Amino acid sequence: MAALVRAVGRALLGRAAPLLGAERGVSGGGGARLGPVRPGLPVPLSSPLAGLTRPRRIKEPPKPKQVDRWTEKRALFGVYDNVGILGGFQVHPRSLIAGPKWLRGWRGNELQRCIRKKQMVGDRMFVDDYHKLTKRIRYLYRRFNRTGKHR
C-alpha cells in the first residue's frame, strides 16, 4: 500500500521538476505550507505522498564539562574523617563544624529549624526578626499540617 502511494506521489510530482522556495499564504488552505511546492501541484515536497525521505536528525554527543577540581567543597572533602582515629575518639566531628549553635550537627526541615532557633536564641533576637520568625513558623505549621506526606 505504501509503495503504491509513493508511486502515485512520484508520478504526480515528476522527479525532474525544479524546486521553488517555500510558499506562504493565508488563502492557501489555512496558513503556511511546510516546505517547497512545485507550481500547479497540490502536494508539497514535505508530504509523505512526495515519496521523499525526511532527513534524519543526528544528535551530537555532549561536550565534556570543565570542572574545577579544587573548589573548597572538593578540596576539604573527608578532612575530618581521621579525627576519631588520631584523636582517640575524644573530639566529635560535630564540634568542629562552624555555624550557628542551633544548627551544628542537627538535621530537620524548615519548620523544625525555625522552632529550634526560636527556642535557643529567641530571647536575644531583635523584635522585628522575632516577629518574622514567628510568622514563618505559623505559616509553615499550617502548610505542613494541610499538605504533604508527613500528615
Write down the overall mean pLDDT.
Answer: 76
Rounded to an integer, what's the Rg over CA atoms? 35 Å
Category by helix and strand content: mainly alpha
User: What separation lies between the terminal Cα atoms?
Assistant: 59 Å
Elements, N to C (H/E): HHHHH
- Number of strand segments: 0
Beta-strand proportion? under 5%
Largest sheet: none
| Gross morphology | elongated
Helix content: 25-40%
Which regions contain 5 or more consecutive residues with pLDDT less than 50? Answer: 16-26
The number of helices is 5
Description:
With 151 residues, the chain is mainly α. The chain has helices spanning 2-13, 72-75, 83-86, 110-121, 127-146. Helix 4 packs antiparallel against helix 5. It is elongated. Residues 16-26 have low confidence and may be disordered.
Summarize the structure.
The chain is mainly alpha-helical.
Show the helix and strand layout.
Layout: H1 2-13, H2 72-75, H3 83-86, H4 110-121, H5 127-146
Helix pairs in contact: 4-5
Main features:
elongated, 5 helices, 0% strand, 151 residues, mainly alpha
